[in-house]
Every structure is written in C-alpha cells, then in structure tokens.
Amino acid sequence: MSDALDKAEKALIEAQTNTSAVQLAAMAMELAKLATQQQAQAPAQTCQHDHHKPRRSSGEWIGIACAVCVGSVGLAFASLALAILGGVAAIVVLVLRDMWADFQKGK
C-alpha cells in the first residue's frame, strides 16, 4: 500500500510540475502576443536627419584638383629653393675653409 501511495504522490508532484510548466509556457506565449501587438500599434520612429551625404559636384572636384595642382607646384618650388640653398651653403663653406687655410699659411 505504501508503494501505491508513493507512486501516487510522485504522480501528483509530476502533474503539478507539468502543470506549472504548461502554465509558464502559456503565460510566455501571451506575453509574446502582447509584445507583438504593442509593436504593431507603436508608430515607427523616423529619423530627423539625412543618412546620405551629398555627393560633390563636378565643380567641386575641379576646384579640389586645382588646389592639389597649385599645392604640388608650390611644393616643387620649395624643394627647388631648398636644393639651391644647400648648394649655396656648400659653396660658402668651401670658400670659407679655403680662406681659413690661406690665413693659417700666412701667419
């Protein structure tokens, strides 16, 4: 008899557990339905700003190209000026060294 009572008690506990699980699943389904309905009812929010950057016009590209060309020419002239300055400095150093050598021999 106690075996029958134990089996009945286990069956009752299992039924209660299964019932709780079924109830939880049913509540989860209802919550999912409510969430879907609320999302459908809520108006879609729209952005107030534009996500697309305006493209540059051909005039802007021509202006950019001209600026790059002018900058390149300026850089070329600056490089040429530095080369000339280096050459002049080398000549001055050589002349001064030669003058110094002549001055030392004259003493």
Q: What does this protein look like?
A:
This protein is an all-alpha fold. 0% of the residues are buried. The chain has two domains: 1-39; 60-107. Helix content is 83%, strand content 0%. It has two helices and no strands. It is elongated and about 135 Å long. It starts with a helix and ends with a helix. The mean pLDDT is 82.
Report, as a whole number of angstroms, the end-to-end distance. 137 Å
Overall spatial form = elongated
The overall pLDDT average reads: 82
**Total count of domains:** 2
Q: How much of the polypeptide forms β-strand, as a percent range? A: under 5%
Helix content: over 70%
Rg:
46 Å
State the order of secondary-structure elements, H for helix, E for strand: HH
The number of E-state strands comes to: 0
Low-pLDDT runs of 5+ residues are none
Largest sheet: none
Structural class computed from helices and strand pairing: mainly alpha
**What's the tally of helices?**
2
